[in-house]
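quick q for whoever's on today - can somebody do inverse folding on this one?? i tried earlier but teh output was garbage lol. tokens:
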């Protein structure tokens, strides 16, 4: 049984909108991950199958380890193809935003463009405190992934039979990546039931993890080694954190996606319940931060309160606009004086 946290009248309205062919833009968040790309491409294939004209427009590049996803070659990158992307957005009858809860999550430049659009927005997302920009909002923080919500969304429309191997492959990818391979809270019996159905459709559940996680370079492993060497443990505060400077990223020929998942290693130390990684981005003049926790400590709130970010209780992100040294000092102060 699927819990329906989407308003019946909204489902009816969307059914009506999708009853005739439409031009549809589909937007993931900036720095798209497996769930963002899986959900947008899963929706893309579903809409294509229903005679619409969908286009996925990502704010910036997606990581190489997602480039095998079916349809990824059709994705427009706003940062690189601004003019064409704006045109597609302006011509869209409908705009889906997936896996994020506030327009600023697409980043400056694209945010302002989206804010001007007159077409109705449909949000599907599992982050806390969704903003109110969408005409139709399917938001539910109890889900481990937007991809699992997309499975429900298609079911709500009475189109579950449309879910095939291609759509299923996209959905499986987001469920797998956002659940930490079925380990994080939010992974439910229903998650596994959905996955079981996808496997029955032919989704290659043992091949996809290889494509995602065993597909990186030697230099990426060396970068991981550096991050592990840099790991600092504040054992009195059950906290561990690590850093990667721009210089270190350059040394190990960093490409987008190379730092994905590194933050989690801190939690593998016995007794550590809070971990963070600080990654310098010289281009954007920020330190990008990922936070993870185990148990009750709410990193979403921590990221909101102190580092201009947000996310979920056990996985969140944020940023800092001061130097790495100052950022670390602030973080250590917070950890040692305020918490835990
Ligand atoms: P990650 O650390 O893997 O980049 O992100 C973990 C979670 O936090 C994801 O759900 C992601 O969408 C969210 N997140 C990451 N960075 C930010 C941020 O700067 N602002 C907000 N609001 N959420 C973020
Ligand atoms: Mn997600």
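ok took a stab at it. sequence:
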């Amino acid at each position: 049984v699927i819990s329906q946290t989407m308003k019946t009248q909204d489902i009816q309205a969307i059914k009506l909108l999708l009853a005739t062919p439409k031009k549809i833009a589909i937007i993931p968040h900036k720095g798209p991950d497996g769930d963002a790309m899986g959900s947008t491409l899963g929706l893309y294939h579903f809409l294509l199958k229903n005679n619409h004209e969908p286009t996925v427009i990502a704010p910036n590049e997606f990581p190489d380890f997602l480039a095998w996803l079916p349809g990824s070659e059709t994705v427009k990158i706003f940062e690189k193809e601004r003019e064409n992307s704006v045109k597609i957005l302006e011509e869209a009858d409908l705009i889906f935003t997936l896996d994020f809860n506030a327009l600023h999550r697409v980043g400056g430049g694209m945010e302002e463009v989206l804010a001007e659009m007159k077409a109705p927005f449909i949000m599907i997302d599992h982050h806390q405190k969704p903003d109110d920009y969408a005409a139709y909002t399917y938001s539910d923080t109890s889900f481990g992934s937007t991809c699992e919500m997309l499975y429900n969304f298609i079911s709500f429309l009475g189109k579950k039979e449309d879910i095939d191997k291609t759509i299923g492959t996209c959905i499986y990818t987001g469920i797998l990546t956002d659940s930490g391979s079925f380990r994080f809270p939010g992974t439910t019996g229903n998650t596994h039931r959905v996955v079981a159905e996808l496997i029955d459709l032919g989704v290659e559940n043992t091949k996809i993890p290889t494509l995602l996680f065993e597909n990186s370079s030697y230099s990426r492993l060396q970068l991981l080694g550096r991050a592990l060497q840099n790991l600092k443990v504040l054992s009195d505060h059950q906290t561990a954190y690590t850093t990667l400077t721009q210089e270190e990223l350059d040394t190990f020929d960093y490409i987008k996606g190379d730092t994905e998942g590194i933050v989690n290693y801190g939690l593998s130390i016995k007794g550590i319940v809070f971990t963070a990684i600080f990654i310098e981005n010289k281009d954007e003049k920020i330190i990008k931060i990922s936070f993870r926790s185990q148990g009750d400590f709410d990193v979403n709130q921590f990221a909101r309160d102190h580092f201009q970010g947000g996310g979920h209780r056990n996985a969140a992100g944020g940023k800092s606009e001061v130097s790495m040294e100052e950022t670390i000092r602030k973080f250590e102060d917070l950890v040692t004086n305020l918490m835990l």
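fwiw The chain has twelve helices and twelve strands. also The first strand starts at residue 23 and ends at 27. so keep that in mind when u check it
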